[in-house]
Sequence to fold (179 residues):
Amino acid sequence: MIKKWERIVEALLFAADRPLSLKKIVHITGLKTEEVKNIIKSWQEEYNLDQHSFFIQEVSGGFTFAIKPEYSPWIKKLFNNDKKYVLSKASIETLAIIAYNQPITRMEIEKIRGVDCSSVLLNLLKSGFIKIKGKKKIPGNPYLYRVTDKFLLHFGLKSISDLPSLGELEIQNGENKIT
Fold:
């Protein structure tokens, strides 16, 4: 009976087009959270031991299959990766400010960056890296921005708490500080 559920969880992860949360897997299967955790851990260990080209990655609040980095050149050829989304320096700076200060308004972002961010915010909204998460209760009611699961997925983060602390960044980057 255990093998049946292991195969079902594996099939769910394989078929999903985005990371599946434990809650979602529990809801679909009717298994207990601890049972699903054990099944996923078992698959992670098996894929690692058998030296597969893929693994189960915990990212963006869920679990998904991922290809090991050493196989990326062939995967890129498969998808003819000409349309690779490259984030500009301005976009990365803006994303970092939002990620570390969310929810945050455009004016607050511009105060930190020192330049107009309207077009950068529009592009990040269109590409799905950020979303509007309400309005700030101050005169003018400006929009509040947050990063999305796409941001977490793009940067390989389980959650926003996986970002390095600002102190760690200052030590790593010397003079290049985000704040």
